[in-house]
Amino acid sequence: MTPLSNRTIEALVKNYTKAFKSNKSMSPHKLRHTYGTNLMEQSGDIHLLTQLGHTSTTTAALFTNTEQEKAKKAAKQLGERRINFREND
Description:
Layout: H1 6-20, H2 28-43, H3 57-60, H4 66-88
């Protein structure tokens, strides 16, 4: 049996995610990142992220600031809504 090629894996991930996410496909990298983010949020253990192939916890630390990023995104959206509200008033 021969190993799957990178393109085959990409096609499989895109097809399966498209089937489950209302015609929105996902790349293998995005799927991996989503898994890592969820794992970090649920476990809080950065050392579990070595499952993703990171050799250093410094690299894995990219998944630890998800809550801060969500807060920044929410604040930005709120600011945009305020601007739009003022313009339409």
